[in-house]
Fold:
Amino acid sequence: MNRSDKIFIFIVIIFTISLYASSQYIIHLMSGSRKEVVVYYQDNEFARYDLYENQVFVVPGRLGDIHVEIVDERVRVIEETSPLNICSSDGLFGGWKSQVNDPIVCLPNETYIMIEAIEGEIPPNEYDEDSMTR
Structure:
């Protein structure tokens, strides 16, 4: 590995880190200041819950009730009835969720849970004008 290879690798690493940091900043700006837990059953909105209030609630499912817990601005499925119990286990489709648009999916029960930013509470940009380009 010669000197130009090392410089190229360094530049790629710096570019990757800056791209990651800027994307996290944009996600933070677009997530809004308040969040709600939205429960969907059979593709229809069933209920909305405040993410900042610790609580346990029950949602109907096709195979049985789904017990959902909100603690410390995070949400998870505690207990549900399904063949593999995927939405109540840790992993891609279950476990603790705290980010906007990160779903908990329970397909056998035809239910999914999303965290959504409350509309109208997204912080304005620094110039206080539309970001539309013509």
